[in-house]
Amino acid sequence: MSSVPVAVVTGSNKGIGFAIVRALCKQFPGDVYLTARDPSRGQEAVAKLQEEGLRALFHQLDIDDLQSIRALRDFLKEKYGGLNVLVNNAGIAFKVHDTTPFAVQAEVTLKTNFFGTRNICTELLPLVKPYGRVVNVSSMVSSSALGGCSRELQQKFRSDTITEDELAELMTKFVEDTKKGVHEKEGWPNTAYGVSKIGVTVLSRIQARMLNEKRKGDHILLNACCPGWVRTDMAGPNATKSPDEGAETPVYLALLPSDADGPHGQFLSNKTVRTW
Ligand code: NAP
């Protein structure tokens, strides 16, 4: 078994994830895994980094597919005995003018952004080694969407005692409410992406709390962040940041030094803790 430190970035064949891998290849003292659901897109991305003189390794990972997640889990367990850095970056967003029915957008978006990210965490968090760092890429849209929730929902999403199961039930309820056409009446904002990212931010707060309760002595730091508005296929060419600039906050959180005792369980943008 290798004792080399290992970092994994989900959805990293392009966009912000690719830029995170690029930065980690330069700064992380160990093996960096670029992962992609499509192996050929992943291998192409690895080759692109190689042309820049950077060495990333590749592993297939589709966060919608539990078998794929478990194959990565078993690989990491066997080869490295765990992992040191996990960046949950993979995500999707329908374009503003997409005509797919809202209920379908809600189901598809929540499936990847919330439930996929949650499944990765369920399988990989137990493998994270002491002093490990976990970064969940959320969005400032999670904050604005929270502001668009009913007072009752806001209270639940800001609660310091909400459980992961309760959060998952709420995310499922959002999808069900969109199918019945009652989501606004039930206090939800009109954004599937926003609700999915509320899920990612709240999930991070819960997971950090669980680490405090169950693995306090392990000094693991887990946070959610917004990369900013970044020029990628998701956000388009008019966004203000380059992918490398978008990678800065996630990479800062992934590389928090071993003597840092925070941030932990926070939501950050531009390397600054934001009020939730
Ligand atoms: P992007 O260019 O569209 O890249 C998204 C990446 O996620 C791609 O590599 C994509 O793979 C991958 N992905 C999607 N579904 C996946 C799945 N089921 N399993 C594994 N990988 C999957 O988007 P981006 O702008 O870089 O976004 C990266 C993250 O930042 C997302 O979580 C996004 O919500 C967040 N974010 C972005 C912005 C922004 O302005 N761009 C702002 C706030 C937050 P394929 O190539 O196979 O599709």
Automatic annotation (TrEMBL):
Q: Name one GO molecular function term.
A: carbonyl reductase (NADPH) activity
Q: Which GO terms describe its cellular component?
A: cytoplasm
PROSITE patterns assigned: ADH_SHORT
Chain coiled-coil ranges:
none
Predominant localisation class: cytoplasm
Q: Give the enzyme's main class according to its UniProt record, as a single word.
A: oxidoreductase
Return the InterPro entries for the record.
CBR1-like, NAD(P)-bd_dom_sf, Sc_DH/Rdtase_CS, SDR_fam
Q: Which CDD domains match?
A: carb_red_PTCR-like_SDR_c
Q: Which SUPFAM superfamilies match?
A: NAD(P)-binding Rossmann-fold domains (SSF51735)
Q: Tell me where in or outside the cell this protein is found.
A: Cytoplasm
Give the EC number(s) listed in the UniProt record: 1.1.1.184
List the keywords (alphabetical). Answer: Cytoplasm, NADP, Oxidoreductase, Phosphoprotein
Family membership: Belongs to the short-chain dehydrogenases/reductases (SDR) family.
**PANTHER family registered for this protein in UniProt:** CARBONYL REDUCTASE (NADPH), CARBONYL REDUCTASE 1-RELATED
Quote the protein name from its UniProt record.
carbonyl reductase (NADPH)
Q: Which organism is it from?
A: Glareola pratincola
Q: Which gene encodes it?
A: Cbr1
